[in-house]
Structures are given as structure tokens and as C-alpha cells.
Amino acid sequence: MSVDLGFERRIVSVDGVELGDLDFIDIGELLDPPGVVPVVIKSLLFS
């Protein structure tokens, strides 16, 4: 079912990704096949 919420941009929902302290996700550009979006978990490291 599709619901129009009136947003001008697409929305990406990421589920099932576990992040730790100082982790963040980097969401890439939409790829072919349609609907595939790369998600990379990155961690900050301070020394």
C-alpha cells in the first residue's frame, strides 16, 4: 500500500542495523536494480 505524505524527497528506512558507541551509518546513492541502497557502518576512532 502506498500512502502520499506530501514529502518532496524520498524516504529511506533502515531497520535491523546495530550500532555501537561512536558508530554512524553512511547511506549511498540509489543503485540498479531499483530499490537497492548501500549502507556502510563507520566508526569514529580517537587516539
Structural key phrases:
47 residues; two-stranded antiparallel ribbon; 21% strand; elongated; mainly beta
Q: What is the topological layout?
A:
Blueprint (H helix, E strand, L loop, with lengths): L22 E5 L11 E5 L4
Antiparallel strand pairs: 1-2
Protein name: Ethanolamine ammonia-lyase reactivating factor EutA
InterPro entries: EutA
Pfam family, one: EutA
> What do the pLDDT scores average to?
83
Computed over alpha carbons, the radius of gyration is 14 Å
Order of helices and strands: EE
Number of helices: 0
Q: Give the total of domains.
A: 1
Number of strands: 2
List low-pLDDT spans: none
Give me the side-by-side strand order of the main sheet. 1-2
Task: Based on Cα principal axes, name the global outline.
Answer: elongated
How far apart are the first and last residues' alpha carbons, in Å?
49 Å
Supply the helix-strand structural class: mainly beta
Beta content comes to 15-25%
Report on the biggest sheet. Answer: 2 strands, antiparallel
At a glance:
With 47 residues, the protein is mainly beta.
Describe this structure in words.
The protein has one domain (1-47). The protein has no helices and 2 strands. Strands 1-2 form a two-stranded antiparallel ribbon. It is mainly β and 47 residues long.
